[in-house]
Amino acid sequence: MQNRLLAAAVALAAASIADTAIAAGPQNPLDAQALAAVGARFGQLMAAANRHDLAALSGMYWHSPSALLVAKSADPSEGNWAGYWGNEAIERKLHDIAASGPVVLQPDLAKLKVVGLTGDVAESYDPVTITVSYAGQDGTPKPFLVIVDWIREGADWKIASEILLPVPPAPKS
Questions:
Q1: Is residue 55 part of a domain?
Q2: Over the stretch 75-100, which tens digit does the pLDDT of each residue have?
Q3: What are φ and ψ of residue 111, in 5° steps?
Q4: Which of 14, 54, 70, 77 could share a disulfide with 163, CB 3.0–4.6 Å?
Q5: What is the CATH classification number for the domain harbouring 35?
Q6: Which tens digits make up the pLDDT trace of 24-53?
Q7: Among residues 116, 140, 155, which one has the least CA distance to residue 166?
């Protein structure tokens, strides 16, 4: 129930901030409607992740061997964080994360930024607090930057790359 409420709140917030958090203007190759669509897709991404809806997540990714997810690795041979290329690797990684237990993503949609890179490519950036117990993480909420490159496929926007970047703690003074 709590995940459904969080998912609904994320979707509502993404829709309500679309006009204010999107960088439309003469320097942007995408119009406000396209940028708002990408912002809404980001909200859908957060909601699907919170529901552990792997089918919805899979459908959001660009179907290409060049699709990329950068996430925490459970395999020491890959290093602490790794890139997972192609849909099969991405789906396997998302399954492993979802199977590890509760995952809660709390985006700061007031800080969501979406820009057009070309007429068919956009990038979104948002600080997100993530709570997860995957690959040795202790389930403590931690700050991340979620950077997503989106590619237009027809009328839809697909995730070409998603980078979950952990924010290191501030140095002690």
A1: yes
A2: 888 888 899 999 999 999 999 998 88
A3: -105, 5
A4: 70
A5: 3.10.450.50
A6: 556 789 999 999 999 999 999 999 999 999
A7: 140
